[in-house]
């Protein structure tokens, strides 16, 4: 009898599901009326960041009682894929977090509303620094308001450097030498927090970029002024040789497959002595390490005695199909005000976007000091415009990872690898519309 | 002598196997009881200097884990239950009757197992969006049910085939309808098969990540795997929270195994096969 | 059994009694509708992309390009490598999972002290998400901060750290270990359920003949549970072949693509390249391989007969 009851319950359940879905189908978003609900999604999610964001949103809602905001916080791993799926299906969404890695794709598919007209009436735009604007701009169109910027600096183990009596390295030659010196596999101690897995391109790209310092096209930073890629020069070969040496003699063998998390974990666990990373790694360092052992220094320079600094960032954009664009921009401008943005930047350990924020005592502290130092010497640390216009920007990390691993394992020569890299970018440029 | 050798090799196998299975669990449990700073301190500690429940308190107080567990239970149990009900019927029919499109139906079921799901995710999202099921638990209950029907049917069909059809024929002579013969006479005999199917379905649902990430937006509707996935951040995996979450997420499944185990045994002992 | 409620169910029952055709139809209906609408329809919508230039980066330029995607993947040495890896990955994982799973199921089918706890340890690995298994094993396998190297060093089994995931000679073995660890429970559960449905009369007859343990296993037990064995091994092979999550989580196909299997390569095309066209083309090839395999497997095992399939 019990089984029969179960059967009937099942039928009721199925009928219920069908009925409810029909009802849900009827009740979707009636008239817009007075109350507006904004749907917003973040990409660089972490539980702590979501809490901060919610706090800021609730302040906004208090100030604007006729607007409610539904924040969607997918796990970091899956966030961009979810955003792409939502956009592809034109599912309700008003505000979204756009990244330097995704802006070109979203703009290309016409998902984003250019914000140029909106910022005209936004007084705080005047104090937003140029770098923050340029990260978010593609073909003169502003696609998002940056919510925080990242720029790498060098973190190193002060105590290890003192032990060996060496100074923090100033250029890449010195950095590799220091890494080799620090390395002592018998103590499970290595010089450099290498990352051969996800995002493996960043260190070789930077070394190559700086090796070609005088010939880089500032408007198209993977290329030289003569239109060739930066991978095609003899300097690039030297730079990559240095990079291979850094892996072979100054880094753990295992790091060929490490991604961001292992790279930072190795540093926080006391396995590696040098880490090149964005400021948003700082909270993890502070949580897990004795802060007095962490030193920071500006990024290493190239042979020219200068270095390019690349600034990355993400921020808030509006979907083209949003029905509440004005309200959406109201939210964005609130979140991007000097007060809110500085608060957000502090909590998430990013660089704030308003020039007024650099006086904030928070960013004068030890772990951020080198970033300020770099920005105070624009002649030595030359800011390079973020180059996000190519379709392959997102794919490049994966290509560089696989070919780079073959090279580091000695399966493919440095020359052949550089040829592949050169080819990849030459193709990108040739196919750009 | 030979007996001793047999017994000896059995013990060795068991010991090795248990180490292989248990060590990862041990490591997760120990990690979940370590203070944050100790998780990555070197040399590795195989026993924490002090046992702490802070990781558990954090994931319940801050991450609201109880909400996710409740969602996952609700979704996984309902989908598993619906799957069993639907699959019992179709498996029974496929086991007992030969009909014209029998072969095609079976092939169709088998083929579903071969389809690489990732290719279908975007169209599926669009479909869910059209049906207005995005951001509802129904979307997951529906998709989990659909995903498991073919396998459950194939599995249950095997169990039905092992039961002589004389059993329900006798019951039908006694005046039972086919359906009631199925429910009253055959189902009790194959409780073990149904229990295995149910467990299997439950566990698959309990662990599913990709559709859950895609279809659910609200914090209050999220499932356990999604919540755990968010402990993986850009530069950091929060292993304290992750290990505590893992322990909590395994408990309901183990409890279910324990309960279902009774069914599996009872299915045999009270079975009408003997009687 | 009296129908004391003239409900819908009652009417259905009356119908079923009279005509098995109606019974067949109504029993299969919910299954067929659901599977067609929510499995086949979205899949067919997705698979069309195999014949299109479908790049997530530029959806304004989606057009049919015939078999170009297939040509491209067949010319890619990575694809061939992944195909060979897939075969290796499935074969080794399956054999280990099955033999260990069967042994465990045989042990568990007898009563002994501590069986409940033992069972818990056998089954819990199945109760973890694929991504979590990748994450946990990746952490444990790490050569610098991972616990496995630490343990092996302390016990003196090894003198030098092993790059379980970074040494191309080890990486495939390591991902297979994680996969075996995960999959044993499936066979243990399914085979245990099958073992318990073996009527004890069969064993009684067997022991009267004085059959030994091994003889009993091969002459009585195995033939009886053969349908389950064939179905589960076939399905499990398909799933192992299709599931990228462990490899994706552990090595992301690396180092230097040495651990890519077809499904992880497909995921790679989606996640990093946004190239749904290539991914769908790989998907179609995968289905083709699986179909051939299934036909082969079923014709080889036909003598043992898996039901009437």
Automatic annotation (TrEMBL), chain A:
Gene3D superfamilies, per database record: Periplasmic binding protein-like II (3.40.190.10)
PROSITE patterns with a match to the protein in the record: PROKAR_LIPOPROTEIN (PS51257)
Protein species of origin: Cohnella lupini
Entry keywords, A to Z: Signal, Sugar transport, Transport
Family, similarity comment: Belongs to the bacterial solute-binding protein 1 family.
SUPFAM superfamilies according to UniProt: Periplasmic binding protein-like II
CDD domains, per the entry: PBP2_TMBP_like
Protein name, as recorded: Multiple sugar transport system substrate-binding protein
InterPro entries in alphabetical order: Bact_solute-bd_prot1, SBP
Signal peptide positions on this chain: 1-24
TrEMBL record, chain B:
Transmembrane segments annotated in the record for this chain: 12-30, 73-95, 107-128, 140-160, 181-203, 239-260
Subcellular locations according to the entry: Cell membrane
Major location category of this protein: membrane
Keywords, in A-Z order: Cell membrane, Membrane, Sugar transport, Transmembrane, Transmembrane helix, Transport
Membrane-topology annotation of the record: Multi-pass membrane protein
Domain ABC transmembrane type-1 residues, every copy: 69-260
A biological process term (GO) from this entry: transmembrane transport
Signal peptide location: none
GO CC annotation: plasma membrane
Pfam families: BPD_transp_1
SUPFAM superfamilies: MetI-like (SSF161098)
InterPro entries in UniProt: BP-dep_ABC_trans_perm (IPR050901), MetI-like (IPR000515), MetI-like_sf (IPR035906)
Similarity comment: family membership: Belongs to the binding-protein-dependent transport system permease family.
Protein known as: Multiple sugar transport system permease protein
Automatic annotation (TrEMBL), chain C:
Localisation: Cell membrane
Claim: Transmembrane is one of the keywords in the record: yes
Residue ranges of the TM segments: 21-43, 87-109, 121-141, 170-196, 217-241, 276-300
Domain ABC transmembrane type-1: 83-297
Membrane topology per record: Multi-pass membrane protein
Sorted UniProt keywords: Cell membrane, Membrane, Transmembrane, Transmembrane helix, Transport
Broad class of where this protein is predominantly found: membrane
GO biological process, one term: transmembrane transport
InterPro entries, per database record: MetI-like (IPR000515), MetI-like_sf (IPR035906)
GO cellular component: plasma membrane
UniProt similarity note: Belongs to the binding-protein-dependent transport system permease family.
Name listed for the protein in its UniProt record: Carbohydrate ABC transporter membrane protein 1 (CUT1 family)
Organism of origin: Cohnella lupini
């Amino acid at each position: 009898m019990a089984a029969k009851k179960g059967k009937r319950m099942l039928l009721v359940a199925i009928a219920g599901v069908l009925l409810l879905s029909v009802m849900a189908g009827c009740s979707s978003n009636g008239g817009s009326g007075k109350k507006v609900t904004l749907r917003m999604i973040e990409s660089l999610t972490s539980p702590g960041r979501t809490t901060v964001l919610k706090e800021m949103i609730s302040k906004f809602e208090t100030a604007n009682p006729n607007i409610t905001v539904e924040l969607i916080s997918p796990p970091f791993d899956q966030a961009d894929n979810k955003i792409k799926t939502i956009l592809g299906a034109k599912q309700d969404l008003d505000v979204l977090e756009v990244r330097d890695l995704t802006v070109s794709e979203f703009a290309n598919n016409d998902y984003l509303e250019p914000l140029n007209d909106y910022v005209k009436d936004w007084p705080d735009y005047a104090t937003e620094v140029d770098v923050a604007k340029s990260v978010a701009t593609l073909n003169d169109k502003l696609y998002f308001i940056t919510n925080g910027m990242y720029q790498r600096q060098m973190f190193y183990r002060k105590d290890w450097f003192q032990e060996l009596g060496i100074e923090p390295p100033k250029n890449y030659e010195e950095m590799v030498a220091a890494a080799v010196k620090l390395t002592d596999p018998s103590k499970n101690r290595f010089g450099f927090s290498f990352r051969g897995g996800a995002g493996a391109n960043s260190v070789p790209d930077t070394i190559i970029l700086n090796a070609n310092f005088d010939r880089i096209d500032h408007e198209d930073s993977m290329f030289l002024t003569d239109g060739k890629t930066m991978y095609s020069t003899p300097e690039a070969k030297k730079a990559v040789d240095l990079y291979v040496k850094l892996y072979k003699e100054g880094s753990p063998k295992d790091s060929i497959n490490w991604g961001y998390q292992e790279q930072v974990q190795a540093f926080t666990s006391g396995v590696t002595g040098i880490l090149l990373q964005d400021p948003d790694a700082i909270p993890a360092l502070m949580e897990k390490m004795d802060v007095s052992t962490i030193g920071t220094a500006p990024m290493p320079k190239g042979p020219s005695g200068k270095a390019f600094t690349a600034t990355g960032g993400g921020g808030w954009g509006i979907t083209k199909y949003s029905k509440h664009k004005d309200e959406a921009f109201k939210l964005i401008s609130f979140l991007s005000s000097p007060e809110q943005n500085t608060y957000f930047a502090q909590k998430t350990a990013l660089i704030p976007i308003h020039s007024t924020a650099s006086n904030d005592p928070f960013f004068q502290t030890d772990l951020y000091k080198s970033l300020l130092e770099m920005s105070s010497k624009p002649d030595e640390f030359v800011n390079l415009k973020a180059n996000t216009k190519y379709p392959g920007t997102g794919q490049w990390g994966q290509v560089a990872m696989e070919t780079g691993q073959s090279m580091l394992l000695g399966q493919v020569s440095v020359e052949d690898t550089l040829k592949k890299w050169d080819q990849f970018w030459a193709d990108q440029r040739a196919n750009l519309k | 002598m030979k007996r001793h050798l047999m017994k000896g090799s059995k013990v060795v196998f068991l010991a090795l196997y248990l180490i292989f299975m248990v060590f990862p669990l041990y490591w997760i449990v120990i990690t979940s009881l370590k203070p944050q700073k100790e998780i990555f301190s070197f040399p590795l500690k195989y026993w924490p200097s002090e046992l702490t429940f802070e990781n558990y308190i954090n994931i319940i107080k801050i991450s609201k884990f109880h909400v996710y567990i409740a969602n996952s239970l609700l979704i996984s149990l309902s989908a598993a239950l619906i799957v069993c009900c639907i699959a019992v019927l179709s498996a029974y029919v496929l086991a007992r009757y030969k009909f014209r499109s029998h072969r095609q139906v079976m092939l169709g079921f088998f083929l579903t197992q071969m389809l690489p799901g990732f290719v279908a995710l975007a169209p599926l999202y669009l479909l869910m969006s059209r049906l207005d099921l995005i951001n509802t638990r129904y979307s997951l209950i529906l998709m989990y049910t659909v995903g498991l029907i073919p396998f459950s049917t194939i599995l249950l069909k095997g169990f039905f085939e092992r039961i002589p059809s004389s059993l329900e024929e006798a019951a039908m002579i006694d005046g039972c309808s086919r359906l009631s013969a199925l429910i009253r006479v055959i189902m009790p005999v194959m409780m073990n098969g149904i229990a295995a199917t149910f467990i299997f379905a439950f566990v698959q649902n309990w662990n599913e990540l990709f559709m859950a990430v895609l279809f659910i937006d609200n914090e209050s509707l999220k499932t356990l795997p999604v919540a755990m996935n968010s402990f993986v951040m850009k530069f950091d995996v929060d292993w304290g929270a992750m290990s505590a979450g893992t322990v909590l997420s395994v408990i309901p499944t183990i409890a279910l195994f324990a309960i279902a185990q009774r069914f599996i045994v009872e299915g045999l002992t009270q079975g009408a096969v003997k009687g | 059994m009296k129908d004391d409620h003239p409900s819908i169910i009652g009417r259905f029952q009356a119908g079923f009694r009279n005509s098995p055709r109606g019974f067949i139809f109504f029993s299969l209906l919910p299954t067929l509708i659901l599977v067609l609408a929510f499995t086949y329809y979205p899949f067919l919508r997705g698979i069309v992309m195999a014949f299109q230039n479908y790049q997530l980066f530029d959806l304004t330029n989606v057009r049919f390009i015939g078999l170009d995607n297939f040509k491209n993947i067949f010319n890619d040495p990575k694809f061939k490598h992944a195909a060979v890896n897939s075969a290796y990955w499935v074969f080794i994982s399956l054999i280990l999972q099955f033999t260990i799973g069967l042994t465990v199921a045989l042990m568990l089918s007898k009563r002994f002290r501590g069986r409940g706890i033992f069972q818990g340890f056998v089954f819990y690995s199945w109760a973890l998400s694929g991504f979590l298994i990748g994450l946990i094993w990746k952490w444990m396998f790490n050569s610098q901060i991972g616990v496995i190297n630490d343990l092996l060093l302390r016990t003196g089994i090894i003198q030098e750290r092993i790059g379980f995931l970074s040494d191309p000679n080890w990486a495939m073995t390591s991902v297979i270990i994680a996969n075996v660890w995960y999959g044993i429970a499936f066979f243990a559960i399914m085979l245990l359920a099958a073992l318990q449905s073996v009527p004890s009369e069969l064993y009684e007859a067997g022991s009267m003949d004085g059959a030994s343990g091994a003889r009993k296993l091969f002459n009585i037990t195995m033939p009886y549970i053969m349908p389950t064995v064939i179905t589960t091994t076939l399905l499990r092979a398909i799933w192992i072949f299709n599931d990228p999550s462990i490899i994706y989580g552990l090595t992301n196909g690396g180092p230097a693509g040495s651990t890519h299997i077809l499904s992880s390569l497909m995921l790679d095309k989606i996640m990093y390249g946004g190239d749904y066209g290539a991914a769908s083309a790989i998907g179609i090839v995968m289905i083709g391989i699986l179909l051939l395999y299934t036909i082969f497997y079923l014709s080889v095992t036909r003598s043992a007969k898996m039901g009437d399939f």
